[in-house]
Amino acid sequence: MCGIVGYIGRRNAVPLVVEGLKRLEYRGYDSFGVATADGRINIIKKQGRISESCVDPLLLKGCMGIGHTRWATHGVPNDVNAHPHTSCNGDIAIVHNGIIENYSEIKRSLTAEGHTFLSDTDSEVVAHLIEKYYNGDILQAVFSAVLHLKGSYALLVICSSEKRVIAARKSSPLVIGEGDAEMFASSDMTPVLEYTRKIIFLEDGDVADIRDSKVTIYNNKEPVERKSELVEWDFESAKKGGFDHFMQKEIFEQPDVFFNSFNIEIPEKAVADLKKASQITVVACGTSYHAGMMFRYMMEKYCKIPVRVEIASEYMNFNPCKNSVMFAVTQSGETADTLAALRSAKNENCITFAITNVLGSSVTRSADHVLYTRAGPEISVAATKSFTAQLAVLLKIVSCLCNDDIEVEISGMHPVIEEALLYDAEPAALICRDAASLFFIGRGIFYPVSLEGALKMKEITYIHAEGYAAGELKHGPFSLLCEETPVIALCIKDDSYPVMMSNIKEVKARGAPVIGIGSAGDIDLEEICDFYIPLPKSSEISEIINASVILQMLAYKTAVLLGRDIDKPRNLAKSVTVI
Ligand code: AGP
């Protein structure tokens, strides 16, 4: 996701736009740009963070301007791919947040009509499409252009000869701030609250004609009434979208993130390389390693294809894989251990894949194929939405290789994940808060789900927590079980349910309290556990995703009760770039 800001009014636009972009950097920061219109379009745009740039957009003048801080999705971060993008004649400038799914088709068509494109982005097609329909009225041109766009967009558009900013939104947030003889537009309220608290929230399909003292909003070209709201949020609260922490906000973004990530296109060449693979190896660290482990269970179950999964830092201690396929799963794309393992595989003539969340990251420059998750920037050190996004992309691979039924199952998941987010994890967190140690146990794919649940818990609450294969606990860790060591047991009604229930009884017999997470309506599980958390009635895959979401919320709530620094836990970094 990116951040966009617009201004029109009585003041010089650029200082306000630049300050607004700095406040939106948490939405993306690999490049930035500003454009003004004062009879002509003036643009400054650069790779890098606006807050660290030596380039001074303040050189630009004008009382009308738009700006963009980027989280690259199409086209690596560089000066040319930075927004704003302009029409061929340079008289129209746009900034965009979202993904234009059909940009290739539009680009081909406009190129055939003589348009020249400068960037590798999807967004640039919007500037040329508006130019195609421009006939002296920028509003009408935007009306016509957006009819051709598929995907998501929050757009701000200016034209050199017209004193107005046009805003348009579909599936990406966009708000308008009503000031005193000045108007603001932005991806969210963060840049606006300093100047006005009168906020209009645009709705899907809205196109707004913003002038210095009034805004007219249309939907399907008809004027509509959108009342402004008086917002009491402060700057910090607005940056987190009203949530208390970025982790909480990112947990709640997961329904969209899962859906968007599952719907990526996997190139045919990549699928072909996978289909002929004699062996698939996954290397990763931390949460990404747990995603890799879950991929193994999925591939074994749905495709009967064995997958080797290695902790990246240990990979070098084994015989390297040769002439096969290696996946590097890494949110940041910068984890040194993972990069080292990938380079080693390339030296052994392996075909390499990167599954990452950051366009242009180091891993993308090493791998033969790159599959991007669509999680957007993950600010909290603890990985949540990026994990779910990785699972979505890995499921997409499974679906492409061997199981079309998955597509059907996924199509109904959005509301089911949303239902899981409604669960109040606080009562269960109260059980965990004072624990000496916590154990998370599961069988099958719920074993790596348990490992991930334990990692989330330990990294943000500082309580010692371990994930275990449920069948393993009796081989030693039983000696640790007592009243102070709650066990979180994942016990879904699948093939391993009977033996999992036995494991829970064994744990209970040693005095440890059990929090059971299971299928909805499981009265047997509810009866034997000290605390029962039902997963929404759903498919097998959504029970896996929702179990992970519930464990994230359990860790989060426990950390809140303990007053931890949730988004920046002690001793940790978001990206471990040393081995
Ligand atoms: C997860 O919550 C941790 N922040 C950490 O384990 C992380 O998953 C690990 O460092 C791997 O990072 P990557 O996905 O960027 O490679």
Q: Would you mind describing this structure in some detail?
A:
The chain has 579 residues and is an alpha/beta fold. The protein has 3 domains: 3-236, 4-Layer Sandwich (Glutamine Phosphoribosylpyrophosphate, subunit 1, domain 1); 240-411, Rossmann fold (3-Layer(aba) Sandwich), CATH 3.40.50.10490; 422-563, Glucose-6-phosphate isomerase like protein, domain 1 (Rossmann fold, 3-Layer(aba) Sandwich). Helix content is 35%, strand content 23%. It contains 19 helices and 25 strands. The strands form 4 sheets. An 8-stranded antiparallel β-sheet has the order 3-2-4-1-10-9-11-15, covered by helices on one side. Strands 5-6-7-8-12-13-14 form a 7-stranded antiparallel β-sheet, with helices on one face. Helix 9 (286-303) links the parallel strand 16 (280-284) and strand 17 (307-311). The longest helix is centred in the C-terminal third of the chain and has 23 residues, at 540-562. The mean pLDDT is 93. It binds 2-deoxy-2-amino glucitol-6-phosphate (AGP). 2-deoxy-2-amino glucitol-6-phosphate is lined by residues 285-288, 330-332, 335, 338, 381-383, 459, 575-576. 2-deoxy-2-amino glucitol-6-phosphate binds next to helix 9.
